Amino acid sequence: MTMQYQAREGCLQVCLEGELGHHEAIHLMSQLSALVEDHLPGQLILNLEGLDFMDSSGIAVVVQTARKCAGYGGRLSVVHTPQQAKKVFDAAGLDRLVDIC
Amino acid sequence: MRLLKKDQINQVTLRFSSRSANEGFARAAAAAFIAQLDPTMEQVYDIKTAVSEAVTNAIVHGYRDTLGPITMTVRLYAPASVEIIVRDEGCGMENVAKAREPMFTTGGSDRSGMGFTIMESFMDGLRVRSSPGRGTTVTMQKVLQARAQV
Asked: Are B118 and B49 in contact (CB under 8 A)?
């Protein structure tokens, strides 16, 4: 999996590509955590358009990143979620905690 | 859900080490094998997701701080059903019912506790057998195509 980001005017946009399972999640979580600490974004947009596959590890990544953002007064939105990943988020009812579209 | 032995049309068994790099291998292998039943894209993703959860559980919980073997068997049944068995010989668990509850996890904050919930909702049948000190076996079944009505 690869991650790219762009920071502009308090908004941090992160794009993920590839597969996101437990193997990838551990590294991704610490990368995202470091990004939030470096940029303290008012809004973090997680773009999942390039994701080929995601399992429940993605739920933990989103929940932890949302908490991290909220801790600094920011907000996480998940956008361009592929159908497969959406189904995993829905099984956990994650859209009640985080903006997902 | 009950699949009949006489309707079994193909089978593969893979045995691999409980390294997290093998999670991607296991789900890709399962997806490649079930392609013989001509599943829809959504069915392939459902099965890949459930396999990923079962194999990750074996790696994260079964062999918490150790390495050990994981066996995955995929059986195809006529006209179009699949059974996947993921077995580890790790630490096992006392309370399977508790482990199956949504949001329950003995893992760290990197685990969501949703693994069994996803296996249950993405497959048509799930059975978990575990014995402490001996390991855990997860059996999942899914119908890919409804039998023709007579």
From this structure: yes
Which residues are B12's β-sheet partners?
B74
B109 contacts in chain A (CB < 8 Å): 60, 64
Count of domains in chain A?
Answer: 1
Tell me, yes or no, if B22 is annotated catalytic. Answer: no
Q: What is the DSSP string of A50-64?
A: EEEEE-THHHHHHHH
How do residues B123-137 score in pLDDT, each as one tens digit? 999 999 999 999 999
| Cβ-Cβ contacts under 8 Å, B121 against chain A | 91
Cite the beta strand spans of chain B per DSSP E.
Answer: 8-17, 69-77, 81-88, 125-131, 135-143
Interface test with A, best of B56, B111, B112, B119 (most A CBs within 10 A): B112
Concerning whether B111 is annotated as a catalytic residue, the answer is yes
Q: Name the CATH superfamily housing domain B7-143.
A: Histidine kinase-like ATPase, C-terminal domain (3.30.565.10)
CATH of the domain at A96: 3.30.750.24
> Which tokens belong to B91?
């630490």
Burial-class residue A96 by CB neighbours within 10 Å (0-12, 13-18, 19+): exposed
For residue range B5-38, what is the model confidence (pLDDT) as tens digits?
A: 889 999 999 999 999 999 999 999 999 999 999 9
Asked if B71 and B87 count as a contact pair (C-beta separation under 8 A), the reply is yes
Cβ A60–B20 below 8 Å, yes or no?
no
Measured CA to CA, the distance from residue B64 to residue B97 in angstroms comes to 20
